[in-house]
Write a structure and sequence with these properties.
Blueprint: H1 2-26, H2 66-73, H3 103-111, H4 134-140, H5 153-164, H6 185-188, E1 192-193, E2 208-211, E3 215-220, E4 225-231
Antiparallel strand pairs: 1-2, 2-3, 3-4
C-alpha cells in the first residue's frame, strides 16, 4: 500500500510541470510568441509577419525588346555544366617569354570546351543565376507568356512575306497589340489559318495569325492569346 502511494505521488509530481506549462502557454502574449495569431490555424513562424519581397514590382512597360528576348532564348546551349568560377589571374605570375600568365585562362584551357559557362558548380546556360548570365537576367525582366518563339531571321521573313501576300485588309486596332495580350471577341473574328507553305516551320502548329498594317501577330486560337509578333 505504501508503495502505491509513493508511485501516485511521483506521478503527480511529474505531471505538475505539464499543467504549469499548459497554463503558461494559454497566457502567452505577442511579446513571448511574436507572429502568433491564435484561433486562426496559422503556423507560428516564430517571428512577426514579413512581406514576401521588398523588391519593387516588375515594370512590364519597360520589358526588353522582342528580338533581344528571342536572341537570348536562342543562345547556343550544349548542356555543359559549369565547373565553378575560374581563379583570378595572378599579377606576379610570368610566362617563359616574359608576358603575364593568366591563371584563369590556363585553367580554362585545360577544363574542356570553351563554351562551358563560368558560375556556380553544376549550373547550365538555362539554370545560371541572373547575376552571372546576361541571358537569364534579360529573360527575368520579361513575362514568360511574352517569350517569343525560337524563329530565326529566315523563318520570320518567310512568315511575314506569306501573310502579307494575303490581299485581305489588315485587322483593325492592331497597332498597340503585343505578345501576351488577349484578343477581343471582334478581333478573334479576323484570325486566319497560317498558309500551308509555313507548315515546315517548327512551333507554328495549331497557331493562327492576325494581320496588322506592318506586323504579323501569331495567335493561339483556343485562348486568343498572342504568342509572338513578326515584323520586318
Amino acid at each position: 500500500m505504501k508503495g502505491r502511494i509513493l508511485i501516485a505521488a511521483a506521478a503527480l509530481a511529474t505531471a505538475a510541470p505539464l499543467f504549469v506549462f499548459a497554463a503558461q502557454a494559454d497566457d502567452a502574449s505577442p511579446a513571448t510568441q511574436p507572429g502568433f495569431a491564435p484561433d486562426t490555424g496559422q503556423i507560428n513562424p516564430g517571428h512577426a509577419a514579413q512581406p514576401w519581397s521588398a523588391a519593387a514590382p516588375l515594370p512590364q512597360d519597360q520589358q526588353p525588346a522582342q528580338e533581344d528576348a528571342r536572341a537570348a532564348l536562342m543562345t547556343p546551349d550544349n548542356g555543359a555544366p559549369s565547373a565553378g568560377q575560374p581563379p583570378p589571374p595572378s599579377p606576379n605570375a610570368q610566362s617563359n617569354n616574359g608576358e603575364a600568365n593568366n591563371g584563369a585562362a590556363a585553367a580554362g584551357a585545360n577544363a574542356g570546351p570553351s563554351d562551358v559557362p563560368a558560375g556556380p558548380i553544376g549550373a547550365t546556360v538555362q539554370t545560371m543565376p541572373a547575376k552571372f548570365s546576361k541571358r537569364n537576367d534579360l529573360l527575368d525582366h520579361m513575362p514568360m507568356m511574352a517569350w517569343p518563339l525560337p524563329l530565326n531571321e529566315q523563318q520570320r521573313q518567310q512568315i511575314y512575306q506569306a501573310v502579307m501576300a494575303d490581299t485581305s485588309p489588315p485587322a483593325a486596332e492592331t497597332a498597340k497589340l503585343k505578345p501576351a495580350d488577349s484578343l477581343t471577341f471582334q478581333q478573334r473574328r479576323d484570325m486566319r489559318p497560317l498558309p500551308e507553305s509555313l507548315g515546315a516551320i517548327d512551333g507554328l502548329r495549331g497557331l493562327q495569325y492576325l494581320k496588322g498594317k506592318d506586323k504579323v501577330l501569331l495567335v493561339r486560337p483556343s485562348t486568343g492569346i498572342i504568342v509572338d509578333e513578326v515584323a520586318m
